[in-house]
Design a protein that fits this description.
By secondary structure, the chain is of the alpha+beta class. The chain has 6 helices and 9 strands; from the N terminus they run H-H-E-E-H-H-E-E-E-E-H-E-E-E-H. A 4-stranded mixed β-sheet has the order 6-9-8-7, covered by helices on one side. A 3-stranded antiparallel β-sheet has the order 3-4-5.
Length: 279
Amino acid sequence: MSFFDVLHLPLSTGVFYALPFLVALTIIVFIHELGHFLVARWCGVDVEAFSIGFGREIFGWYDRHGTRWKVAWIPLGGYVKFRGDANAASMPDADAMERAKSEPGNFHGKALWQRSAVVAAGPIANFILAIAENEVPSTKEPDPYMHIFIDIGGGNILAFFELPTKAEMIAPSDANTPSWTQHLALKTDSLDTMLKVKARMEADGIEVIGPTDHTIFKSIYFRDPSGHRLELAVNTATPEMDKALDQVKWDMLNEWDRTKKAPTHARWMHDGSGRVGPH
């Protein structure tokens, strides 16, 4: 029995629908991956392969930069592979982190903002916020970090951490990755809703951290039955706060890239005052 028999479609009808779908998907994938490719080149990352489709290569060629452009047998996606990647998912190989600092074109040796820009360049993305502190707000661990936020549309935000005092982290599940970094944040409509959820979970025996006051939002943290860390957050920022953070985000990122120390451009977020500007 074929796939089209299962759908109760004649083979000719199935092909009629499948071919336009695959053509449209190929165009979408190409545009998406081209975003990653162009920003990677702009950031000086060496691109080893640009593939439309997965699996065995049908045909391909090398450009003058050494990138292998290819079309593969399974036309259900695509990928861009950077120097230092062990696979198409941009996971570093075992030695990549050691080599990264001595290889100018290694993706994993680039600055946080460059790696974040490359990752977010597939969808339409916008760098909206930088937060830096010398301790973790929820756990109070003395751990300097830079946390950047990228708006990818549809109410979705990608956020990235850089932790210069930690050992190199190869994957989210490895022993070097702090448990507080990998988490999913969900927005609630009000502080009252968040506190009701906290009370209900604690009544059910679930450990909840917070509310943690980040000045521009308040959060609670807990773990689901699988152990994944979740955050519920409510926005407490004023238009003045949003404007002040937007004005300093690039300066903060550039200073962090040079020093790997938490910039003080938005010290008012962390000193307990909540008052924008120097004081």
